[in-house]
Structures are given as C-alpha cells and as structure tokens.
Design brief:
With 231 residues, this protein is of the alpha/beta class. It has a single domain, classed as Metallo-beta-lactamase, Chain A (4-Layer Sandwich), CATH 3.60.15. It is built from five helices and 16 strands. The strands form three sheets. It has a seven-stranded mixed beta sheet, with helices on one face. Strands 7-8-11-12-13-14-15 form a seven-stranded mixed beta sheet. Strand 7 and strand 8 form a beta hairpin. The longest helix is centred in the last third of the chain and has 11 residues. The protein binds nickel (II) ion and manganese (II) ion. Nickel (II) ion binds next to loops.
C-alpha cells in the first residue's frame, strides 16, 4: 500500500515499496508548508514538474542532503546535474521503469524557467507525472491549464489524480472538474490553491461540483496540510 502526504501547494510526499519521494517540494517560503526541508533524511527520489520557484522549491538542498535522484524534463535535469545533483532527465510522453515502478512524463500547458541567482535559465517544458508504485498510479498534473491530452490518461486507469484548482496560472475549479471527466481517476486531490491571494479557491466547491457532475464515481479527497492518504 502506498501513502501520499500533502505538504501544501503542489508538494506531496509519497511512500511505497522501494520509494520515498517528494513531488514539487516548495517548503521554504510556503506559508502553509506542513514540513521543512530538514524533516527528510531518507529519500530516493524528487519529482520536479517545472523550474518555477513554487515547484522547484527546496529541491537542491534536499537532494544534496539525501542523495535523492531528481526526475524532471531533460533541460531542468541537466541544469540540476551541473549543480552536482543526481538526475533522471526524461521527456513528455516518455515512460521508463525504475526499481520502485514506472514513471511517465505527461504534457502540461504552462511555462518553464529557472531563476538561478540573478539570472533566468531555460527550463525546458513543464510536465506532469504518472508515478506507479505498489500497483497504483498517481497522476500529479503539475501546473497546467485544461488540455485534451488529459483524455489520453483515461486508459492509464489512474488511481489518484492531484489536480490544480486555483486558477490564474492553472486550471480553476470549473476546468479541474472537466479534467476529472477526462482522466476518470478513482479519486482526485485538489492542489495549487490558497497559497497566494491570486489562487484562492474553495476545495469543497470543487468536491461538490465533481459530485454534482456525477463523474464516474470519482471521489474528491480534500487533504489538509500534513494529511496522509492511503492508496
Ligand atoms: Ni508554475
Ligand atoms: Mn505554480
């Protein structure tokens, strides 16, 4: 059985057989972060959807301390490799097998750059991930607008889909409900809302809208900061 813990914004901790991982570990500077970088001493992977500060977050510090391997698109991975970090650079639509399970990069309609000191670096393209562990598939959409590509995920039989609902930079509630209809996951977890004034959204409104739309029985699980979900 795999466990998913919500750390605030788009950050999650996943634990399963052979996997202790973070996704988009934006902890320092996140007013609602449910963990600090120093809380993680044993990790083997960090999944980074794109280089924006609220996703790359504390990746470098945590990867250096734990020796965790960072999964991202090839461009962000090569920038991280130059910083002395272990990386697996993949690309959109690419899937690969690892000791804990398979990982696939999914398209995300979003920008990507990395702020490196005073300079802005090319980050490649933003992505999402389908991460398989203990026979379950977790889809973390990253930052994205609604896209028809999500319809392709229906055949993946996603167990848990983490979807942005905050609007402004990503899907809002209305589009996230449509995304649920495209992906048809067993459960959907809202993310990327309330952290900043621009992305204020009510996750319960998302939950009732999904229920009302009768989307194939997908259950919305609104996770509080620090909550753990067994999947
Ligand atoms: Ni972003
Ligand atoms: Mn973001």
């Amino acid at each position: 059985m795999a466990k998913l813990r919500y750390l605030g914004h788009s950050a999650f901790y996943i634990e399963g057989t052979g996997l202790k991982a973070l996704i988009d570990p934006f902890l320092t500077g996140n007013p609602f972060a449910a963990a600090k970088p120093s809380d993680f001493s044993e990790l083997n992977a960090i999944f980074v959807t794109h280089g924006h500060g609220d996703h790359l977050g504390d990746t470098i510090e945590i990867a250096k301390k734990t020796g965790a391997c960072v999964f991202s698109c090839a461009e962000t991975a090569s920038w991280l490799a130059q910083k002395g970090i272990k990386t697996v650079g993949m690309h959109i639509g690419g899937r690969a097998r690892f000791p804990f399970g398979r990982v696939k990069l999914t398209p995300a309609w979003h920008g990507d750059y990395i702020t490196d000191g005073g300079a802005v670096r090319y980050g490649g393209v933003a992505c999402g991930f389908v991460i398989e562990v203990d026979g379950k598939k977790i889809y973390h959409a990253g930052d994205t607008g609604l896209t028809m590509e999500m319809k392709l995920l229906e055949d993946e039989k996603i167990d848990t889909a983490c979807l942005p609902i905050g609007g402004h930079y990503t899907m809002d509630i209305e589009d996230a409900v449509r995304a649920v209809g495209f992906v048809r996951p067993v459960r959907a977890v809202p993310m990327h809302y309330d952290t900043f004034p621009a992305i204020k959204a009510d996750p319960d409104e998302f939950a009732s809208a999904v229920k009302e739309a009768r989307l194939y029985g997908t259950e919305v699980v609104v996770m509080g900061y620090g909550d753990t979900l067994e999947i």
